Amino acid sequence: MRRLVAILFLISAGFTFAQNGFTHGPDQGIEQSYFDPSLAPFYHGVASGDPLEDRVIIWTRVTPAKDTLVPVNWVMALDTGFQNVVARGSYETDYTKDYTVKIDVKALQPNTTYYYHFSALNKNSVTGRTRTLPGNNTQHVRLAFGSCSNYQMGYFNSYKKIAERNDLDAVLHLGDYIYEYATYGYGYSVEIGREHRPNHEILTLDDYRIRHNFYKLDPDLKAAHQQHPFICIWDDHEIANNTYETGAANHQELSEGDFQTRKEGAIRAYLEWMPIRHPEFTGDPKIYRSFSFGDLLDLHMLDTRVEDRDQPAINVQDPLFNDTSRLLLGDVQRNWLFDKMDESDATWRIIGNQIMISETGENDADMDSWTGYPYERQLVIDKLKSYTDKNSVVLTGDTHRSWAFDLSEHPFDGTSYEPLTGQGTFGVEICSPSLASPNRNESNPGTSQLPDQMALLVENPHLRYVDLDNHGYVILDITDLKMQADFFYTETTVPNSTKDSLARSVFTYVNEGYLQEALSAATGKENQMIPAPSTPRPYSDSTPTLGLEQGSNYFLSGVYPNPSSGQFTLGLTNNTEEVIDLKVFDLKGRLVLDKAMNIPSGNHKIVFNLDKESKGVYILKINSKNGTLSTRKLVKK
Fold first, then answer.
1. CB distance 585 to 621 below 8 Å
2. What mean pLDDT comes out for the span 23-40?
3. Which of 197, 245, 339, 527 is deepest in the core (most CB within 10 A)?
4. 20: pLDDT confidence band, cut at 50, 70 and 90?
5. CA 282, 207, 493 angle in degrees (round to 5)?
6. Which pairing describes strands 229-232 and 170-173: parallel, antiparallel, or unpaired?
7. How far apart are CA 342 and CA 266, in angstroms?
8. 580-623 tens-digit pLDDT
9. Distance (Å, rounded) from C-alpha 430 to C-alpha 489?
């Protein structure tokens, strides 16, 4: 009765207060049958990402049997037997992080393979394999890249084949890692019958968490993450179709709510569930970043979707089309990119992005791609042309097709561009097929690939290779002499397919800036890394576990969103039932909120509002009878 009175008090006081449910199980959108009990509580495996010369992110997700604060230990070694341990540590996770764990392991050696695992709830995760980036005097880098993996469209055999390669420095994912659609929506194949969870189109933070949760239960995706560090960037479907900064093509405000709220929920879930290094999310989604592979190449991963993308024009007649204030990257990101490229001494500059910069047809602009933003596209072209070399390589996802282009400002002018010599070029563009999203023939059943491909090749002299109908990925092999792209195609209609066929190889020599066909795939590295084992190591409780600090009954796991337009959510874990005081002050010391709450033991979400206060910075203080528990800065925007 006392707890009931306390909860009624909270509601009457203008607070909402609830324990968080798990993002799994039949009542939460994912049936238990999708969870392999032998992997509990690490059902989602492990992942690593954003490697640098001296550090790398490692990631996992713990699924406890009840809602609680979970102590997690991690260890990293040079061998699969963990005889040569180089780093270890502890962490705590709870529902405010959706029970995800993300560690930035530092003080590592460059160009080195490491193995790692996590321990929690008296169990070990599977072992993961990762690798730091090379330093100077690098002679050979191999990357896999792909995009567009719609679970409903087919099986993730491309991920499986990528996992089996043992000489990759990293895997690049260029976006559409998940899809937001409802079961039976876009990409659903009756032949395959793979259904999304939750079944409805995802709109809320919990929805996006469940969808990420569900995708990472796929065994082939787990295998790829287990064996390789990923470098990822989002596209539109991590949020909604054809996303731009303030909206999306398939978001309806009247029926689906505020787009900004949806976008922030999607971004928060992405940052929780992906092995990506990022500053604390405060509503500003800056995830563009660079990676240096010694003096051989610099990789710049761009955000052409969310950061500062203006609404697309309707068509070329739309007055917005040539509006010089309408941007795709935005001034801040574009200047960052130009500065990074200017600072680089690497042989190759590689840009990873979502949408094609090349034209596919004279006077034919795609409103969703770079050609739909002609002003800023020209700024980027002018910048790439300004370099005396021709060693710019643009990597692209999104189209669900394979493309390989020479980059030329005037590809349809025979006096300006010459395909056989590279006259008039400034680099090349390689576009990946979809990992498992509808291709041309699946979107338009009954179409014939060969006539369409021949027409495209005839119409576009700068187009050196195209395939409209196959799924797969690209291996990028880079030396100081040449860059080669090998297109590999896999099967998506059956699980565990052994198909992994080389379709085409194209390359460009250093400083030449045009593509030629290679007779065979690039030779892999002589040194093959030892794969991470497929089963978890036996558990040992010799490593001390984390808990709440001795003598403390509380753990404040965070306040989010922060900044907020008025509503804040406080995550709090306490061991004993207690009365706490929640106070908020402005910077002049004025008390703007003061509430006492009697809360039971457990994990809690406490929602409070500063709707009536002006924009600015506030200080949150949480006190108990034992003194001040914690202080946090709040920003109302």
1. yes
2. 79
3. 197
4. very low
5. 120
6. parallel
7. 33
8. 888 999 877 789 999 888 888 767 778 899 988 999 888 888 88
9. 15
Total Cβ atoms within 10 A of residue 395: 24
| Topology alike, domains 137-517 and 554-636 | no
194: tokens are 């793979």
In this structure, which CATH number among 2.30.130.10, 1.10.630.10, 3.40.50.1980, 2.60.40.2550 belongs to the domain 554-636? 2.60.40.2550
* Separation CA 627–CA 432 (nearest Å): 58
The reply to whether omega before 461 is within 30° of 0 (cis) is no
Between helices 374-385 and 331-343, what is the axis angle to 10°? Answer: 10
Using CA atoms, how far residue 411 sits from 360, 363, 414, 425, 510, in Å, is: 10, 11, 7, 8, 21
H-helix or E-strand containing 343? helix 331-343
The confidence score (pLDDT) of residue 6 equals: 39
Residue located via tokens 């041309």: 440
Beta strand 113-120 with 123-124 is antiparallel
DSSP assignment string, 18-73: EPPPPS-BGGGTB-GGGS-GGGTT-TT-EEEE---SS-EEEEEE---SSS--EEEE
- The pLDDT tens digits for 433-480 are 999 999 988 888 777 778 889 999 999 999 999 999 999 999 999 999
Spell out the domain ranges in the chain.
1-132, 137-517, 554-636
Cα–Cα distance measured from residue 22 to residue 206, given in angstroms and rounded to the nearest whole number: 9
Superfamily of domain 137-517: Alkaline phosphatase D (PhoD) (3.60.21.70)
For strand 140-149 and strand 471-479, is the pairing parallel, antiparallel, or unpaired?
A: antiparallel
Q: What is the rounded CA–CA span in Å between residue 177 and residue 280?
A: 22
Cis geometry, peptide bond prior to residue 433 (ω within 30 degrees of 0): no
Dist CA 266 CA 347 (whole Å)? 37
At residue 556, the pLDDT reads 67
pTM of whole model > 0.90?
no
- Quote the CA–CA distance of 602 and 575 in Å, as a whole number: 6
What's the pLDDT tens digit per position in 312-330? Answer: 999 999 999 999 999 999 9
CATH architecture for residues 1-132: Sandwich (2.60)
Q: How far is CA 520 from CA 162, 505, 545, in A?
A: 19, 7, 52
The residue type of 560 is: Y
Express each pLDDT in 127-158 by its tens digit.
Answer: 999 999 999 999 999 999 999 999 999 999 99
Q: Which tokens go with 464?
A: 């050196």
Cα 473 to Cα 468: distance, rounded to the nearest angstrom? 13
pLDDT band at 572 (very low <50, low <70, confident <90, very high): confident
Please tell me the number of Cα atoms within 13 Å of 529 on its side-chain side.
Answer: 27
State which H helix or E strand residue 377 sits in. Answer: helix 374-385
